[in-house]
Amino acid sequence: MTGMVYLVGAGPGDYRLVTLKAVECLQKADVVVYDRLADPRILQWVPETAERIYVGKASSHHTMRQGDINQLLVDKAKEGKTVVRLKGGDPYVFGRGGEEAILLDANDVPFEEVPGITSAIAVPAYAGIPVTHRAVATSFAVITGHEDPTKGESNMRWDKLATGVDTLIFLMGIANLPHITAELMKNGRAADTPAAVIRWGTKPEQRVLETTVGTAVADVQKAGLKPPAIFIVGDVCKLRPQLRWFDRMSQRPLFGRQVLVTRARAQASRLTQKLENLGAAVQEVPAIRFAAPDDNYAAVDAAIARLNDYHWLIFTSVNGVEQFFQRLSKVGKDTRALGYARVAAIGKSTANALLTHGIKADLVPAEYRAEGILEAFKGQLPPHAKILLPRAQEAREVLPEGLRAAGATVDVVPVYKTVTAEADGEALATALRSGELDLVTFTSSSTVKNLIQILGSAEPLQHTKTACIGPVTAETAKSLGVEVDIVAEEYTIDGLVEAIRKTL
Q: Annotated catalytic residue: which of 4, 14, 30, 35?
């Protein structure tokens, strides 16, 4: 049975500009064939089990020829797989999606084209330049900037383009800018026509150069602007002083700061969103991922079978809550199985996770760590108390040892373990050493340990600042040779973000 191919546009750069339909396609993909994306976080919606095939193309290097890419889509679909061909921008706007679709059709492979927001419109919009505007521009053209000026005959109708269209948008045109501007002026476009060059449009590192057709080449050289960038020509560029809304984000406290988030992929979004709302440019490189404990849930399943024996359940993480209740559901039970047991949460986030399961924590300590729970439990435990502690396979023994010292019987059951995630440690180490990152965040001891394992040593972290969610994580970092610059006063994501906002 032949599978299905989705030709999906990934949008112009900011991963949040991807469409809902694109996300739906990615979530059900068996195979994803993708180019060099402006933001690889778009791949976060791809199932872990899906095959990922990089066929990225840069201006001077092609990982795979276009004809081979076309055939690859056919071959994977013939295997009965759901294939997503993911392209930056829109597949049909200089994306060669039409060529791929034609071969699919010739081989009787069903396909859909999922449009993406094209950089031709989105990037100028983020720069405060509308491609049309009443009484200023009623037409626009999107033109490739890649045409080789040395070839015998141009496919461009420069005599028509130069003066026949109000707004001209050249994609990928920086390398050919001398040729483009010369042709425009030779064919009647005034040298003083307003223009702009926009690099990394829609991303926090966006940079806009206001210029004219006649001075663009010299201005770009002076500014040192490099690809990727677009070149836009027309009187609409004069509207930028009034419409430069994205530039005004520079007033946000973390604008332009490059921050690395090391949380597990499933948990990173909340921290990322809060940092981005403050203007930061966030890179997600998960240092950890969650996996089944070594006993394949045998201990927690046994504990669930005798829940009525426990006086207290203590949860020390959001993930512990989620994994425990997944197991509870797996064996056909729900929150009613907790009976009369009381429930404690190590902090606000864990307590909120319990609320999503209909449980209000009976105890939340003032200090969100194991020592805080022990302090809060003073005078709270009945004689011969039995306590269930579902948690990570590897964790500090402070809490169970302290509870046992107080006379309680404590069953520690692993509901998950953290393992090192896959990442390009060499590339990340290079980015750290070169100063590309302003801050690395750590939200647990395991993120510290596993990031160092990915990097090969703690040395690359000496070249940037680090922020830890609390003293336990900070102590782990220091013990491994990492200098800690920021420690949250409140041991939560909100507390971490606030500490970063105050310090950076």
A: 35
Specify whether 202 is located in the same domain as 219: yes
What residue type is assigned to position 430 of the chain? T
Secondary structure (DSSP) of 322-360: HHHHHHHHHTT--GGGGTT-EEEESSHHHHHHHHTTT--
Do the beta carbons of residue 25 and residue 76 sit within 8 Å? no
Q: What's the mean pLDDT in 46-54? A: 92
- DSSP output for 22-84: HHHHHHT-SEEEE---S-GGGGGGS-TTSEEEE--EETTEESS-HHHHHHHHHHHHHTT-EEE
Number of domains, the chain: 4
- For the entire predicted model, the pTM comes to 0.74
Catalytic residue among 172, 249, 362, 417: 172
Instruction: Show the domain range for 473.
Output: 252-287+421-503
Active-site residue flag, 57 = yes
Collect all residues with Cβ–Cβ distance below 8 Å to 330 and sequence separation of at least 6: none
Report the b/e string of 260-289 with b at 16+ CB within 10 A.
Answer: bbbbbbebbeebbebbbebbbbbbbbbbbb
Q: Are residues 426 and 490 in the same domain?
A: yes
Residue 488 and residue 499: Cα distance in Å, rounded?
A: 5
CA end-to-end distance (rounded Å), the chain: 56
pLDDT class of 270 with cuts at 50, 70, 90 = confident
Q: What is the pLDDT of residues 442-499, one digit of tens each?
A: 999 999 999 999 999 999 999 999 999 999 999 999 999 999 999 999 988 999 999 9
Contact 87, 9 (CB under 8 A): yes
CATH code, domain carrying 178: 3.30.950.10
The answer to whether 156 is a known catalytic residue is: no
- 275 lies in the same domain as 223: no
Of all residues in the chain, the percent with pLDDT exceeding 90 is 76
Look up the CATH number of the domain holding residue 273: 3.40.50.10090
Catalytic residue among 21, 28, 57, 348: 57
Q: Final residue of a domain: which of 82, 102, 117? A: 117
Please identify which residue in the block is written with the tokens 């419409």: 243
What interhelical angle do 298-305 and 318-330 show, nearest 10? 70
Kindly report, residue by residue over 393-440, the tens digit of the pLDDT: 988 899 999 999 999 999 999 999 988 888 888 989 999 999 989 999
**Domain shared by 328 and 408, yes or no:** yes
Together in a domain, 364 and 465: no
* pLDDT for position 152: 60
> To 10 degrees, what angle do helices 97-106 and 66-78 make?
40
Q: Is 172 a catalytic residue?
A: yes
